[in-house]
Amino acid sequence: MATALLQSIDFKIHERRLPELILSGIPGFDAVLGGIPRGSVTDIFGSASSGRTSLLFALLAQATAREEFCAVVDASDAFDPTSAAAAGVALERLLWIRTGGNAEHALKATDLLLQAGGFGLVAMDLGDISPETARRISLASWYRLRRAVENTPTALVVVERAPLARACATLALECARNRIQWSGVPGCSQLLRGVTFAAERRKPLRSASAVFEVRAKLDNGWRSGQAPLSGARVMTAHPQR
User: Fold this and answer.
1) Is 1 domain-assigned?
2) Which residues contact 121 (CB under 8 A, 6 or more apart)?
3) Which H or E run includes 172?
4) Are residues 108 and 82 in contact, defined by beta-carbon separation less than 8 angstroms?
5) Most exposed among 11, 20, 174, 204, judged by the fewest C-beta atoms under 10 Å?
């Protein structure tokens, strides 16, 4: 009887489709790390001047170049439109929301954007929020954002000092500054010509890293962990096994 019952059941294996990826436009990064998955949460974290903002600008530039609308939820007024435009971001396709240092408002605004739909990429910048405030964000809030972005064509990117979404993130990238490039005579007159950054995948655990160089046209120096950027980017990748 049991055998007859099993034979009457139609077993079907449903393959889980791999998410579509948003490329950064930096060949080395895309070749090694594959891009940012849609329908998922991605953590991009690192200290100030670690390259996290440069990587976000590259993603926004590629998305807006494909005529997708994007949004930046700026929790602490750190976003610089001039630098973004110099990096190739089409500002006419970018919605900039400022929450004046209120992380709770940033979470609510991000949730509303995801529920509304129509965006290729939504970024929530918590990079300049104090660690104490960031740690007070409840796990339930991250699960809510993950559910909101699932099964949508939107990629949710969270920029922060330390990974916050954790279990709710499909991808986690740690950024760090490697080397600063100067020109001129040491100890006399020197100009900053570029910065080399590294991005390492922390989740999933398949180890991979990429090193990329950002050449910047400097005007008033560094601001809020980012440099005024030109559109020039050179990136070389170093996979780890």
Assistant:
1) no
2) 22, 36, 59, 60, 63, 68, 70, 71, 154, 155, 156, 157
3) strand 171-184
4) no
5) 11
As for how many domains the chain has, the answer is 1
| Apex 139 CA angle, 137 and 145, nearest 5 | 90
User: Which residue is it, tokens 């660690």?
Assistant: 131
DSSP 8-state symbol, 37: E
CATH code of residue 227: 3.40.50.300
Please indicate, yes or no, if residue 78 is contained in any of the structural domains: yes
Whether residue 111 lies inside any domain: the answer is yes
117 within 8 A of 87, measured Cβ to Cβ: no
Task: Quote the tokens at residue 204.
Answer: 């999933």
- Residue range of the domain that includes 32: 19-238
Q: Closest by alpha carbon to 148, among 124, 174, 130, 131?
A: 124
Tens digit of each residue's pLDDT (9 = 90 or more) over 135-170: 899 999 999 999 999 999 999 999 999 999 989 999
Q: Give the pTM.
A: 0.81
Burial of residue 39, with CB atoms counted within 10 A of its CB: 0-12 exposed, 13-18 middle, 19 or more buried: middle
